[in-house]
Design goal:
By secondary structure, the protein is mainly α. The protein contains 16 helices and 6 strands. The protein has 2 domains: 7-20 and 40-225 and 452-482, Serine Threonine Protein Phosphatase 5, Tetratricopeptide repeat (Alpha Horseshoe), CATH 1.25.40.390; 242-289 and 368-429, Serine Threonine Protein Phosphatase 5, Tetratricopeptide repeat (Alpha Horseshoe), CATH 1.25.40.
């Protein structure tokens, strides 16, 4: 489908996964392979490369905005106010083909970042460690492995069947673990979903022992990987795989046994008392475990990729009145409703309000509130009960924004009712933060319809993205989802 678009061919030169055949031009003297690892020759150069890994992760086509957008628009909480295909209308409408911008650009961005990580890890082993020493090298390589794990996990959420479907036996992704610095033969078959998840967990386990326990500043503790951020992300991965006891094991490392729930080692992560402070400058609360930073005038987010453009600034997508904002259990006095702002009769999400020309809202990747709710769900499902601690965790998240609501065991006739209450709380708490579609897919739930768009059952071909046209052109061992 649309595999011959010229822009996909031009884009291939910059892709890790979108690969090239032998070129008819001489080898570039500026190619990475010809630099004799000069980029690892000084501490300053190595430091710059580490920051470059994060720059790849926060590009507009990735966690700078569009990854969150795609996962929200595929679900039921937003309605299109425009049919512009450049701003993810095909994702919203489930009409994306292999050559759609969102399909090719996200694939490209994620694999480019993976390639940066691969080259960095190899360069540190070959030269960088001898320059900066073993201790700092271990920190930096841990950060690279964390970022690589985030990339592969994120790709799985859009381009592969959920883990529950065949226990990971379905086709996953090309698992690229060595760096590509020059053109060559990049044919690589898809690993299974389970094999990719195994690599994600391996990277996270190794990152946990490599990254720093903490940093000297709140900014670094929010924007760079530390031990707690790696553990937090592992709770998300294990939850996606429905490995409930593993979620509990990991979460217990950074969640105290009783309220007020806090991390007792490493960065002092905890719920921010005022929900609105999480989404306001300086964006470095103890709840902000890992976020993508943007700074007005110097490192601002980009135009149509910015969350504000979609939700509030340009108002490309409004909130669906019959989505979660229409739920009667979400009280009008709940502070999280502060971010529902009306233009006339149309509701919009104003959680990320800093639009043109600054686009300086930080983008949350994972927050402490998610860890608490991941733990609550895992405790409930692993014990098949309205678990007492799980109930306290749910109340902690609800109570900081709505003190008038306190759940009791009597509110839930069955454990299933309790599971659903936790899922609903996540839908409210993380509205617009890119969790909605993955939350549905990990459980094999139907994606509800919205507006004129029909519901998508788990058996539908539309449940996941097709594979990027560029990958299919240049990787002859790649197969499509269609």
């Amino acid at each position: 489908m649309k595999k011959k678009f010229i822009y996909t061919i031009l884009m291939a030169a910059g892709l890790v996964a979108g690969c090239q055949k032998d070129l008819l031009t001489p080898e570039s003297k500026n190619a990475v392979s010809t630099l004799d690892l000069a980029q690892f020759s000084t501490t300053a150069r190595i430091d710059g490369q580490v920051l470059g890994l994060y720059a790849g992760l926060r590009s507009g086509d990735f966690y700078g905005g569009r990854y969150l957008i795609y996962n929200e628009l595929r679900a039921d909480n937003f309605l299109a106010q425009s049919s512009n295909s450049v701003t993810a209308y095909q994702t919203y409408n489930y009409t994306v083909g292999n050559g759609a911008q969102e399909v090719t650009d996200f694939w490209s961005s994620a694999y480019n970042t993976i390639n940066r990580c691969n080259l960095f890890i190899e360069g540190m082993a070959a030269k960088g460690t001898s320059v900066i020493g073993d201790a700092i090298s271990k920190n930096y390589v841990g950060e690279a492995k964390f970022i690589r794990a985030v990339c592969y996990y994120s790709l799985l959420q859009l381009y592969a069947r959920p883990y529950y479907d065949g226990n990971g036996a379905k086709p996953g992704l090309p698992l690229r673990l060595t760096g590509n610095s020059v053109a060559g033969n990049y044919d690589l078959a898809r690993s299974t979903v389970a094999q990719v998840y195994t690599q994600v967990l391996k990277d996270l386990d190794e990152a946990e022992t490599g990254v720093p326990l903490t940093y000297a500043t709140a900014l670094a503790s929010t924007t760079r990987a530390h031990r707690n951020s790696v553990i937090a992300f592992k709770t998300r991965v294990y939850l996606t795989m429905q490995r409930w006891t593993d979620v509990v094991t990991e979460a217990n490392k950074i969640v105290s046994t009783a309220a007020p729930f806090t991390a007792t080692t490493g960065v002092a992560n905890a719920l921010q008392a005022d929900y609105t402070k999480v989404f306001a400058s300086p964006y470095t609360t103890t709840e902000s475990i890992f976020s993508m930073p943007f700074v007005a005038g110097t490192e601002q987010g980009g135009g149509q990729s910015a969350l504000s453009s979609y939700y509030y600034g340009v108002k490309l997508y409004s909130l669906n009145p019959t989505g979660i904002i229409g739920d009667a259990g979400w009280k009008a006095t709940d502070k999280r409703r502060t971010y529902i702002t009306y233009t006339g009769a149309i509701p919009y999400l104003s959680k990320f309000p800093t639009g043109s020309p600054t686009y300086a809202d930080y983008v949350p990747v994972i927050r402490y509130a998610e860890v608490l709710l991941n733990l609550a769900e895992a405790l409930a499902r692993s014990t098949t009960s309205v678990n007492t601690r799980a109930l306290a965790l749910l109340n902690a998240v609800r109570g900081r924004s709505d003190a008038s609501t306190v759940f009791t065991a009597a509110d839930f006739a069955t454990p299933g009712d309790f599971y659903n209450a936790i899922l609903k709380e996540k839908n409210i708490e993380f509205l617009g933060e890119g969790l909605r579609s993955p939350e549905l897919l990990r459980l094999g739930l139907t994606i509800p319809g919205k507006g004129t768009v029909s519901a998508v059952p788990s058996t539908s071909i539309q449940y996941i993205f097709p594979i990027s046209a560029t990958e299919l052109i240049y990787n002859k061992l790649m197969t499509d989802n269609l």
